[in-house]
Design a protein that fits this description.
The protein contains 7 helices and 8 strands, in the order βαββαββββαβαααα. It is of the alpha/beta class.
């Protein structure tokens, strides 16, 4: 499973605490239900998927009518097959409809009702990965259904719903054993933005990581002008916002983006 944690995609904190749930009957599959750019599936466009997650979360948190505290889904899968953590395991999701949210987790594929409407093979594999992760880590039951099962909606669209009705098979083969819950791929973002005059072990961690990746930087735990300059150069190299500040996206990129 290619897993992208909330820290990695730069999620905002939920507006309030999640409601804990022990288990569910299974998982319901969703689509975005709006236009998704057709070119998002391009092999060189995966860098846009984290930004789409942030936009999706922002739109949900701004939805006063629904009162969402966070992105509604348990997980979201991009066209390249990456599983983006939404509310995650053992947290009540909010996408299935009134009276239905405790019964199933929700996994949304980044496809829409126009533009990109046909899920890719990588995406279908990713949806299966997400389902098996929620079974392993969140005690989800065996049911795999579409959002429209039990709720009046076109979601998850005809292509995805046909796949669900066929038993949600992996393209080209049967499903393997459930994937275990992913272990963190790198140290969690410390929860504070690192910038000029910041000191401490968190600064030393990012300095050491940039040094390991070939950047000439003093590893002293003090975020001074040199650290800011190197971070700006790193951000430029990875096509990130060049603000010289280490937030969750820059922190994650230091471990996850290819060395160039």
């Amino acid at each position: 499973m290619q897993f992208v944690s909330r820290d990695q995609w730069g999620a905002n904190a939920p507006k309030s605490d999640y409601t804990y749930i022990d288990s569910t009957q299974g998982v319901k599959v969703h689509y975005e239900g709006t236009e998704v750019p057709a070119d998002l599936m391009g092999a060189d466009h995966h860098g846009r998927c984290a930004g789409r997650m942030r936009d999706l979360q922002a739109s949900h948190q701004a939805n006063q009518a629904e009162g969402y505290i966070d992105i509604a889904y348990s997980a979201v899968v991009c066209p390249h097959g990456y599983v983006f953590e939404g509310r995650g395991a053992h947290h009540l999701q909010a996408a299935n409809g009134p009276g239905l949210n405790r019964q199933h987790y929700s996994v949304c594929a980044m496809v829409g009702d126009s533009g990109l409407t046909q899920p890719t093979d990588a995406q279908l594999n990713g949806v299966r990965d997400a389902i098996e992760w929620l079974r392993s880590a969140g005690d989800a039951g065996d049911e795999i259904r579409g959002h429209r099962d039990g709720y009046a909606t076109d979601c998850p669209g005809e292509p995805l719903y046909a796949w669900v009705q066929a038993g949600a098979p992996r393209p080209g083969g049967s499903a393997p054993a459930p994937a275990p819950a992913p272990a963190p791929a790198f140290p969690a973002w410390p929860g504070r933005y690192l910038r000029n005059y910041t000191e401490g072990g968190d600064v030393q961690t990012i300095q050491r990581r940039l040094s390991e990746r070939g950047w000439t930087i003093t590893v002293d735990g003090k975020y001074g002008p040199q650290s800011e300059r190197i971070v700006r150069e790193f951000q430029a190299d990875k096509e990130l916002e060049q603000d010289g500040v280490v937030g969750p996206v820059t922190w994650a990129a230091a471990w996850t983006t290819p060395i160039t």
